Amino acid sequence: MTEELDHTGQDSDADSEEVVLTPAELIEKLEQAWMNEKFAPELLESKSEIVECVMEQLDHMEENLRRAKKGDLKVSIHRMEMERIRYVLSSYLRCRLMKIEKFFPHILEKEKTPREGELSSLSPEELIFAKQYMANTETYLKNVALKHMPPNLQVVDLLRSAVPKPDLDSYVFLRVKERQENILVEPETDEQRDYVIDLEEGSQHLIRYKTIAPLVASGAVQLI
To answer: Is 182 left (phi over 0), alpha (psi -120 to 50) or beta?
Structure first.
């Protein structure tokens, strides 16, 4: 695992730039995306480029192992590492699918009306899945319940129904990767006032998610 990989990203001006990552850096980015997705209450930005690069790297490693000498201890070690990477990758994708299934009306509504400069949280494949899941849910509700109700009750708006929303007020643990100053913290009770804190690099905190959501998106903090 010594060769470098090309990873294409996008900056805020939507201009593409090529970033060269070593395999170790690529796996580190996958693990960071996995941890953030696992502990964030909402669906985060899709890291489909990282996923594709990791899958290509796994194929390349598999080819190298086929050519390796049988009985070599390095083969066993590399195969264990491949299984670990596959676990992280599959866990990351499963976590995203679970959030899509749980919050699909709100995720699709957000995709329809994105904020200025906001990137899509769904990959093209996930967007197709979310739309199909919503269509199947509506069909199921219609066939099982709605068609047996009076005509005025046969239409349901999933966005206004009892479909759960991500709890952005939940608390998360984080580790600071880049020092941040003047982070505004909202009060927990009416008796309290807003206050400002600084986050020192390397420090760890328990804080309300919506306070640091932009820092998770920018990579300034890591959820743990």
So the answer is: left
Per-residue pLDDT of 173-205, as tens digits, reads 999 999 999 999 887 776 778 889 999 999 999
pTM of the model: 0.83
Q: 174 and 197 in contact (C-beta within 8 Å)?
A: no
Residue whose tokens read 């194929």: 59
Q: How far lies 57's CA from each of 1, 52, 167, in Å?
A: 9, 9, 35
Helix (H) or strand (E) holding 60: helix 48-67
Helix (H, G, I), strand (E, B) or coil at 118: coil
Strand partners, 223: 174
d(CA 4, CA 194): 46
